[in-house]
C-alpha cells in the first residue's frame, strides 16, 4: 500500500470522510496537477501528485470552501494544534518546515493527545446514550428520581469540573471534534465543538425523555432510535397537531372532573395526574392506523379504564354513566362486574387517518397483570385468522401500573412469549402509568430494580421514559413507539412518569402514608392548564378557543347524563369485548338447544388412522422407536381399535375436516409428556426438519397448530384462553405437563375460566388437559386436584332438576364449565368433538390419564365411535350384575383409572354378579338423570363411592350431596378410598400399594357398612 493510501486509511480510521477519486482528479486538475488512477476505489496520488496535500492546504488558506469539507475539518483541527496521525506519507517528510509551521508535523506527545481527546469525546457521547436517562427530568413533582437514585453518574458532564474525568479541560470546550457514526446530534454537520456536543447530548438525553436502549444487541435498531431522538429538530409539531393534543387533554381531564362532580362518593379509579394517557393512546392508534393497522386489542388495569372507554374506544357516555346508578337493574345473564373491570368492542372511523379501526378493550379482574397474556392470545388468534403473519393489521397495546409491572411474575412470562414462533404477536406497545407508588407502598419498598420497567430489558425491548407533564414529549415518544413496533415487530415500553392526584381510589386517604408527596401534589398545576397556558402564550390558541373547547365537552357530558337516566337496565352484552357475529341469534342466545351425535363414519376413522401411522413426506428419516409406534397405530387401525393417543388424533383430524382450527399448546405437547402423542416428527438426519402428519389429512382442511410452550403455566394458559376468545370455530387446548401444574395458573382459572361468562358474558370453549392418576410416583404430579374445579362448579347440589329431552344440553348451557374424567379413548374422542358441536361454548376440564395411555384394557372399538354414537356421561354396568339387578348387593360408583383396578379386583374375588360398577365420565354438571336410572335399577343395593384420591380430595365432597338429593336422603352413599391427607399422595411406593390394597378390600367387603348409620 502506498504511503498516501496508508495515510488515507489512517484518516478514515479516525473518522474522516475522504474524497472520492473523481473529486481528487477534479481538484488536482484545478491545481494543475495530474491524477493517476490506481483502478481501485481508494484515493491514490503518485508521481507529480506528491505535492497535492500541500497545494490543497494553500488553497484552503485562501478559501476554506475551495476544498472538500472533510479536508476543511482536517485543516481546522490541524490549526488548532491537533495532529491527526503520527504517520504522514513519506512524500511529505521532506517538508518538515512547512508541516511544523502549520501544525501538521508530528511532535512528541501531540498525536497521542489528539487521539485521546477524540476517544474521550466518543466515550462521552456513549456515556450519555447509556446513562443519560439517570439524570433526565422525569418526575413531574420534582421530588423523586424515577430510577430511585439521586446519584449522578460520574461519566456524565453535568458540571465543567467533570471534564477531567475524560482528560478534557475547559479550554477544550470550543475545540471542534469529528462526530462518530454512532450519533446523529450533528444533523448535517460532521463535527461540532465540545461545548455544542454536550449541549445537544443533554437536550436529547437529560430533559423530559429518558432513553434506555443501549442494551439492545442490534446495531441497526440502536441507530434507528438514535436517529429518531438525537437528530436536531425532530420533535416539532404543527399548530394543528398542538390544537388536537389540547382538545384530547380537555376531554381526558373534563371527563374525570365530570364524574367527580356527579358521583363524588363513588369509586371510579380516575386518571387524575396522568391525563396525558388518553392523547398518548390515541397517538399510538393514529400512527398505527396510518401504517395499516386495522384492529387494536388492549388490556389495562382499572385506573383510567372508564376514561379509555369514553375517549379512546368511544363508548357511548350514557352507557358509562348509567353504571353509576344505584337503582340499576341487571336484565341479562350472569352476575356482572364492577364498571371499572368491564371491556368493550367497537368499530369506528379514525378521524385522523380517515380509516376504519376496530378497538377492543378486554374485560379483566383486579388481578392487575393477569390480562396481559390473554390480550396476547387474542391478538395472535386475530392475526392467525386474518393471515396477518407479520402483524401489520392487528396489534396489541398493554397498559400497566408501575408497581404491578415490576411485581407481577406474569409480566415476565408474557414478555418471554413475545418472540416465540407460535406465540409472538409481532410486537406489543406497553404503556406504564408510573404513579411512583403502589397502593400505599413506596417504590423503594416495592422493587429492587431501578425502574419498574426493567423487566422489559430481558427481551431487548427499548424503554422510553417520559415526563407525563410534557404532553408534546409524550406524543413524540408514543409516535416513535408505534413506528418501532411497525418497523421491527418487537415490543417497546413507554413509561409515563406521572403521579396519582387522589389515593388508590377516590375513597382512599393517601396522606396517611405519603404526606410529603401529597403536599406537593396538592400544589401541582394540572397538565391541562400548563399546556393551555403554553399554547395561549405562543399564540397557537386563544383563551376563548380553549374555554369553548371545555364548554363543548362539558355540554356533551351533560347531555349524555340526561340520556343515561332513561337507561335503567344493565345490558351486560353492551360490554362484550369478543363478540362472535353469526354464532348466536339476534338475542345472543344459542340457535338451538340440541347437540348432534358426535360419531363419524368408519371411512373417516380409517383414513385418519392411516395418516396417523404414516410419514407423509418423502425422504424423511424417523427414529426407529417411532417406527414401531407408527406400526402399532397401523395395526390398531386395521383391527378397528384405538388407544388414547389415536382417539385424540381422530377427534382432532375429524374437526379439521369440518373447517375447525385445532390448536394444542403446552409444555412438550408435540411429543407428549409420556411419549404417546408424536404429532410432530423430526428428521433424524436433517436438523430442524419436521413433519406434522395431521396437516396432511385432506387437501382442503383447517390448519392444525401444535406447539411446545415455554416453561410457563400462568402466561401460557392465559394466552390460550385469549386465543380461544377470538373465534367459536376453533378447538383450543392447553395441556399441563402434569395435572397439578395448573396450580401456578390458578389466577387464570379462577378469574377468567370459571367465572368469565358470569361476569362478562364471555363464552369460551378452551379445553384443559390435565394428566391425573395416583400411581405411586410421589405427592407431586399425581393429582390434578379435581376437587378445586368441582368446588367452583355452579350447579346446586340440593336442587332436584326437572328432566326433559333437552336436559343434557340445557344443563351444559347453564353450567360454568364441564369437568370430565373419561375412562375410555372413545369417550375422550366424543367429548372433544362435542366441544365443537354444541351450539354454545363452555370451558372443558379433562382429567387425562397417565398409565391408561398404554393400559391393554383402555382401548375402544370403532363401534363406539362410528356415526350415531355419542359421548356417554355415565357408563353403566353392562356385565352379569346388570342382568339380574335385584340380586346385586353393592353398586360402586367411580370415575377414571380406578375403574380398571376395581374390575380386576371384582374378577379376582368372583363378585361379578353381586357387585355392579358404574362410571361417571362427566362429573360436572352432575348427570342427575342418568344416575337416577342407575339408582332405581338397584333398589336394594349398597351405594358406594370409590376413589383413589384421599377423602378430602377428589370427588367425594362433590358427589355425596348430589347422590343424596337423587334418593331424597333415603339411602346412604358410602365412601371408599384413601384417608384424608395433607399431601396429594404418598412418596413411598410400598405405602401407596398398601393403601390401594386396603381400599380395594373395603370396596368388595359386602359386610363393611352393615350396622353403620349415616
From TrEMBL:
It comes from the Eukaryota. The keyword Magnesium applies. It is found in: Mitochondrion matrix. Its cofactor is thiamine diphosphate; Mg(2+). One of its GO terms (molecular function) is oxoglutarate dehydrogenase (succinyl-transferring) activity. InterPro entries: 2-oxogl_dehyd_N (IPR032106), 2oxoglutarate_DH_E1 (IPR011603), DH_E1 (IPR001017), KGD_C_sf (IPR042179), ODO-1/KGD_C (IPR031717), THDP-binding (IPR029061), Transketolase-like_Pyr-bd (IPR005475). Belongs to the alpha-ketoglutarate dehydrogenase family. 2-oxoglutarate dehydrogenase (E1-like) component of the 2-oxoglutarate dehydrogenase multienzyme complex (OGDHC) which mediates the decarboxylation of alpha-ketoglutarate in the tricarboxylic acid cycle. The OGDHC complex catalyzes the overall conversion of 2-oxoglutarate to succinyl-CoA and CO(2) while reducing NAD(+) to NADH. The OGDHC complex is mainly active in the mitochondrion. Involved in the inhibition of cell proliferation and in apoptosis. This is 2-oxoglutarate dehydrogenase-like, mitochondrial.
Amino acid at each position: 500500500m502506498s504511503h498516501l493510501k496508508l495515510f488515507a486509511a489512517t484518516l478514515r480510521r479516525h473518522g474522516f470522510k475522504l474524497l472520492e477519486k473523481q473529486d481528487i482528479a477534479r481538484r488536482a486538475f484545478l491545481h494543475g496537477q495530474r491524477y493517476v488512477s490506481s483502478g481501485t476505489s481508494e484515493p491514490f496520488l503518485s508521481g507529480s501528485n506528491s505535492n497535492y496535500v500541500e497545494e490543497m492546504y494553500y488553497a484552503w488558506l485562501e478559501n476554506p470552501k475551495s476544498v472538500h469539507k472533510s479536508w476543511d475539518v482536517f485543516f481546522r483541527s490541524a490549526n488548532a494544534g491537533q495532529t491527526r496521525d503520527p504517520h504522514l506519507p513519506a512524500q511529505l517528510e521532506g517538508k518538515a518546515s512547512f508541516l511544523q509551521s502549520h501544525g501538521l508535523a508530528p511532535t512528541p506527545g501531540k498525536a497521542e493527545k489528539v487521539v485521546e481527546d477524540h476517544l474521550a469525546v466518543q466515550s462521552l457521547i456513549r456515556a450519555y446514550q447509556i446513562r443519560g436517562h439517570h439524570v433526565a427530568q422525569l418526575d413531574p413533582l420534582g421530588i423523586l428520581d424515577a430510577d430511585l437514585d439521586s446519584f449522578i453518574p460520574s461519566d456524565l458532564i453535568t458540571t465543567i469540573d467533570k471534564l477531567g474525568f475524560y482528560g478534557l479541560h475547559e479550554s477544550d470546550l470550543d475545540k471542534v471534534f469529528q462526530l462518530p457514526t454512532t450519533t446523529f446530534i450533528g444533523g448535517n454537520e460532521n463535527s461540532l465543538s465540545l461545548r455544542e456536543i454536550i449541549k445537544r447530548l443533554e437536550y436529547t438525553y437529560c430533559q423530559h425523555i429518558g432513553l434506555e436502549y443501549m442494551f439492545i444487541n442490534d446495531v441497526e435498531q440502536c441507530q434507528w432510535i438514535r436517529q429518531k431522538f438525537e437528530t436536531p429538530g425532530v420533535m416539532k409539531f404543527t399548530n394543528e397537531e398542538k390544537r388536537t393534543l389540547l382538545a384530547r387533554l380537555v376531554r381526558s381531564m373534563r371527563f374525570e372532573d365530570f364524574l367527580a362532580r356527579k358521583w363524588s362518593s363513588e369509586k371510579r379509579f380516575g386518571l387524575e395526574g396522568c391525563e396525558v394517557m388518553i392523547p398518548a393512546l390515541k397517538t399510538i392508534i393514529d400512527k398505527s392506523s396510518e401504517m395499516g393497522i386495522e384492529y387494536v386489542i388492549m388490556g389495562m388495569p382499572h385506573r383510567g379504564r372508564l376514561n379509555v372507554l369514553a375517549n379512546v374506544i368511544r363508548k357511548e357516555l350514557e352507557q358509562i354513566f348509567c353504571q353509576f346508578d344505584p337503582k340499576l337493574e341487571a336484565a341479562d345473564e350472569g352476575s356482572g362486574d364492577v364498571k371499572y373491570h368491564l371491556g368493550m368492542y367497537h368499530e369506528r372511523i379514525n378521524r385522523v387517518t380517515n380509516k376504519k379501526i376496530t378497538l377492543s378493550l378486554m374485560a379483566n379482574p383486579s388481578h392487575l397483570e393477569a390480562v396481559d397474556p390473554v390480550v396476547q392470545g387474542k391478538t395472535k388468534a386475530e392475526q392467525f385468522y386474518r393471515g396477518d403473519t407479520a402483524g401489520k393489521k392487528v396489534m396489541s397495546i398493554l397498559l400497566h401500573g408501575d408497581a404491578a409491572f415490576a411485581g407481577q411474575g406474569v409480566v415476565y412470562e408474557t414478555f418471554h412469549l413475545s418472540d416465540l414462533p407460535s406465540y409472538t404477536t409481532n410486537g406489543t406497545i406497553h404503556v406504564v402509568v408510573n404513579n411512583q407508588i403502589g397502593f400505599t407502598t413506596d417504590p423503594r419498598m416495592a422493587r429492587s430494580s431501578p425502574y419498574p420497567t426493567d423487566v422489559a430489558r430481558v427481551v431487548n425491548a427499548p424503554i422510553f421514559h417520559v415526563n407525563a407533564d410534557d404532553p408534546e414529549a409524550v406524543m413524540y415518544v408514543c409516535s416513535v413507539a408505534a413506528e418501532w413496533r411497525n418497523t421491527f415487530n418487537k415490543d417497546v415500553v413507554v413509561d409515563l412518569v406521572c403521579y396519582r392526584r387522589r389515593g388508590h381510589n377516590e375513597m382512599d386517604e393517601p396522606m396517611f402514608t405519603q404526606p410529603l408527596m401529597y403536599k406537593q401534589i396538592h400544589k401541582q398545576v394540572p397538565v391541562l392548564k400548563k399546556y393551555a397556558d403554553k399554547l395561549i402564550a405562543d399564540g397557537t390558541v386563544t383563551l376563548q378557543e380553549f374555554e369553548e373547547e371545555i364548554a363543548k365537552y362539558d355540554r356533551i357530558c351533560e347531555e349524555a347524563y340526561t340520556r343515561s337516566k332513561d337507561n335503567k337496565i344493565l345490558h351486560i352484552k353492551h360490554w362484550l369485548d369478543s363478540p362472535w357475529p353469526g354464532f348466536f341469534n339476534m338475542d345472543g342466545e344459542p340457535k338451538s338447544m340440541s347437540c348432534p351425535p358426535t360419531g363419524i363414519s368408519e371411512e373417516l376413522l380409517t383414513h385418519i388412522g392411516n395418516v396417523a401411522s404414516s410419514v407423509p413426506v418423502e425422504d424423511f428419516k424417523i427414529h426407529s422407536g417411532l417406527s414401531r409406534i407408527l406400526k402399532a397405530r397401523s395395526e390398531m387401525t386395521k383391527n378397528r381399535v384405538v388407544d388414547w393417543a389415536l382417539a385424540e388424533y381422530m377427534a382432532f383430524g375429524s374437526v379439521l375436516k369440518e373447517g375447525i382450527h385445532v390448536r394444542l399448546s403446552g409444555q412438550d405437547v408435540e411429543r407428549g409428556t409420556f411419549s404417546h402423542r408424536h404429532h410432530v416428527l423430526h428428521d433424524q438426519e436433517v436438523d430442524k426438519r419436521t413433519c406434522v402428519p395431521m396437516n396432511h389429512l385432506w387437501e382442503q382442511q383447517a390448519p392444525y397448530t401444535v406447539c411446545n410452550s415455554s416453561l410457563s403455566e400462568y402466561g401460557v394458559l392465559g394466552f390460550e384462553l385469549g386465543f380461544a376468545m377470538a373465534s367459536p370455530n376453533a378447538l383450543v387446548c392447553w395441556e399441563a405437563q402434569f395435572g397439578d401444574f395448573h396450580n401456578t395458573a390458578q389466577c387464570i382459572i379462577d378469574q377468567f375460566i370459571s367465572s368469565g361468562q358470569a361476569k362478562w358474558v364471555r363464552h369460551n370453549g378452551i379445553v384443559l388437559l390435565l394428566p391425573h392418576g395416583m400411581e405411586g410416583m410421589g405427592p407431586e404430579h399425581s393429582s390434578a386436584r379435581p376437587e378445586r374445579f368441582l368446588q367452583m362448579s355452579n350447579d346446586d347440589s340440593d336442587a332436584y332438576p326437572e328432566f326433559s329431552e333437552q336436559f343434557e344440553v340445557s344443563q351444559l348451557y347453564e353450567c360454568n364449565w364441564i369437568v370430565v374424567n373419561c375412562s375410555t379413548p372413545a369417550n375422550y374422542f366424543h367429548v372433544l368433538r362435542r366441544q365443537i358441536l354444541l351450539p354454545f361454548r363452555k370451558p372443558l376440564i379433562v382429567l387425562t390419564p397417565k398409565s391408561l395411555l398404554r393400559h391393554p384394557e383402555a382401548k375402544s372399538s370403532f363401534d363406539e365411535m362410528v356415526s350415531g354414537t355419542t359421548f356417554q356421561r355415565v357408563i353403566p354396568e353392562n356385565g352379569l350384575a346388570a342382568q339380574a339387578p335385584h340380586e346385586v348387593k353393592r353398586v360402586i360408583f367411580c370415575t377414571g383409572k380406578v375403574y380398571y383396578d376395581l374390575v380386576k379386583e371384582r374378577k379376582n374375588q368372583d363378585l361379578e354378579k353381586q357387585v355392579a360398577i358404574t362410571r361417571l365420565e362427566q362429573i360436572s354438571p352432575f348427570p342427575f338423570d342418568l344416575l337416577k336410572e342407575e339408582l332405581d335399577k338397584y333398589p336394594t343395593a349398597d351405594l358406594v363411592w370409590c376413589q383413589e384420591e384421599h377423602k378430602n380430595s377428589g370427588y367425594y365432597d362433590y358427589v355425596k350431596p348430589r347422590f343424596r338429593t337423587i334418593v331424597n336422603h333415603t339411602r346412604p352413599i358410602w365412601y371408599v378410598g384413601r384417608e384424608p391427607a395433607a399431601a396429594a399422595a404418598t412418596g413411598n411406593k410400598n405405602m401407596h400399594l398398601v393403601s390401594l390394597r386396603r381400599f380395594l378390600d373395603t370396596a368388595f367387603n359386602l359386610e363393611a357398612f352393615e350396622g353403620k348409620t349415616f
